[in-house]
Amino acid sequence: MSPAAETTASADASPTYSLVVVSNRLPVEIEVADDGTESWRTSPGGLVTALEPMMRSSDGAWVGWPGIADRTFEPFENDGISIVPVRLSESELEEYYEGFSNDTIWPLYHDVIAPPRFHREWWEAYVRVNRRFADAAASAAAPGATVWVHDYQLQLVPRMLRDARPDLVIGFFNHIPFPPYGIYAQLPWRKQILDGLLGADLIGFQRLADAGNFSRAVRRLYGYPTRGVAIDVPAADGKHRRVIAKHFPISIDAASYEELARRPEIQERARQIREDLGNPKTIMLGVDRLDYTKGIAHRIKAFGELLADGSLSVEDVTLVQVASPSRERVGPYIALRDEIELAVGRLNGDFSTISHTAISYHHHGYPREEMVALYLAADVMLVTALRDGMNLVAKEYVAVRFDRDGVLVLSEFAGAADELKQAVLINPHDIDGVKAAILRAVAMPRQERLRRMRALRRKVFDNDVAAWSSSFLRTLTEGAAVRPGIPDTLAGALKDLSRADSILVALDFDGTLAPHVDKPEDARAVPGTREAVQRLLDLDGVRVAFVSGRALVSLQHVSQPQTDVLLTGSHGIEVQLDTPEIELDLITAELEQLDALARVLERISGSVDGTWIERKPAGLALHTRLATPRNAAAAQKAAREELGALLPGLTVRGGKDVLEFAVRSSTKGDALERLRRHTGADQVFYAGDDTTDEDAFAVLRPGDVGLKIGAGDSLAGYRVRGPEDVPLVLGLIADSRAAVAAEREAAAGA
């Protein structure tokens, strides 16, 4: 496809795209033929691979810089994706990109391995360019569209988008680390960056620690309340907007790497590489951008000391180091290249022979096919990063090794170490430790190599880049796809409901009145809930009930209900209906089942990080909110299978990151029916967010109103975005009910 003619793009183009991706670089680059003609080609990269299918299916556009300074291109289409180029001048590249992004933010976020530089003119360029990206995205996005902004170069874009287009659903993913507060606080524009990021609905990080560092910085600098992954950010209307800061470890298209590795011509190339290197017993490989965060000098030092003390010989072991060029106009990178090449030259001069070279050093990049051949040729992969958001090279090596052989030596300071625990983990600052790990890798028995690589490959293939992108977008859209506010259709239904002689307003608690939190005991209703409930209680012919899966004692603790609120807990097994006593009766056999249930769940939870048990009067709940998706699924599967065999009569319910077991069968539908009988209500309003609330929606009758909180399939006829909208809904019911009462009084007086 030929590049669009250079022109000034119209800022008034009507927005048409339901998904907009924004990144510093576009997923395309210009190729120039021998005759001078130009054409676009898709750039290789995991992010492009992950997002291409969904962008094609969802009418998506990609906003970014095309890689050439001082040229403007009209939007165009490439391989089924709409491309929206953003112009950057040569001076902006110097100040915004090479300056603030890569000489201020990059070293600061990587633990100040190199000193960051703070220049006001760089910051001004950063603000100006971020504004241009935000304007382009806002112009491209359709009403209510999802916009996904990527990486540290564009941290101000989410807030700029939020201010310009509050209808948008905005996500941000930070591909590099986020530093601890003591380091982050050095940034003169620290509050502005946080405010920029908090414009998003969802902020993704590579590691759990990065998300925690961000939330702590928000608490220190802004004082906003944080609960687990949730941050309550004040909104312009005086209310609060919920922002989620959570880790989503990025990955690769593992299947495509294995497919390349299985090609006969690439396997032949791997054999040729070994032969060209003199067929040493062991080939060690390092593949990095030439960057001071990668620890290249540390691995060279360790290897040199092993050669010097005779632990390794150049006849047996060769180190291949690929160091692709990076930011070659930035001062620290120029100095780093000199340092690395001097170290390589000295080591080769000291230890190489006519037939064997100690380090085969390559300061250039290779196409993917050649890299896969190198991975296949390498017996040991060295990843010695001093600080790295993820390090996808480690995952690429694992994906390529379909032979299940090879050893990965991996820095514990790379994000990949959180997942690839069967690698040989190292502290790259500990040169003696690195040397010991290299010797261990070189001498590792085949059976241990196979066992470790099998485990590593399961992790990489189970959590590939497609799973990463779908997990992020699912979290983003589930929490934000429903627009804030009260739909007109819902308002009309509430007015009709208010005309009934008697009304029951029944409300789930967690996820409906209160946001979900990591610790159930920390849950509290959103501001304004108690006042709205009291307005309803003060009206004639209106009863209010809380319907929860919690034990009633727990529900009372977190909800602090008014005396007149009716309560049902444990999915209706416990009730408190206009009496001070909680009604519950379990027989001896049910109590024995509870004991057996507790033993099994406590054993399973005790073996899986991030899970815990909640005890209820007639059952137990296995919570998996803090576990990894894989561990959560494994724990829930084990619980279902073991308890299904041991106690086949148990009632089992799945919810959001929770699996509940009860010795007595009851549902929220049963609870709602009992409340209807108790109150004699003519019409019922029920609000809930969970799959367990579907049982209550299922028993609603004509004229009743069901309200789903959040996105997802539901039997409810209406929905709102989140708990912050529920007090508004309750207020509408109270307003409509009061208006009906006034009408009736006026009619009676006439």
UniProtKB/TrEMBL annotation:
<dbReference type="InterPro" id="IPR023214">
    <property type="entry name" value="HAD_sf"/>
</dbReference>
<dbReference type="Pfam" id="PF02358">
    <property type="entry name" value="Trehalose_PPase"/>
</dbReference>
<dbReference type="InterPro" id="IPR003337">
    <property type="entry name" value="Trehalose_PPase"/>
</dbReference>
<dbReference type="InterPro" id="IPR001830">
    <property type="entry name" value="Glyco_trans_20"/>
</dbReference>
<comment type="similarity">
    <text>In the C-terminal section; belongs to the trehalose phosphatase family.</text>
</comment>
<dbReference type="InterPro" id="IPR006379">
    <property type="entry name" value="HAD-SF_hydro_IIB"/>
</dbReference>
<comment type="similarity">
    <text>Belongs to the glycosyltransferase 20 family.</text>
</comment>
<protein>
    <submittedName>
        <fullName>Bifunctional alpha,alpha-trehalose-phosphate synthase (UDP-forming)/trehalose-phosphatase</fullName>
    </submittedName>
</protein>
<dbReference type="InterPro" id="IPR036412">
    <property type="entry name" value="HAD-like_sf"/>
</dbReference>
<dbReference type="Pfam" id="PF00982">
    <property type="entry name" value="Glyco_transf_20"/>
</dbReference>
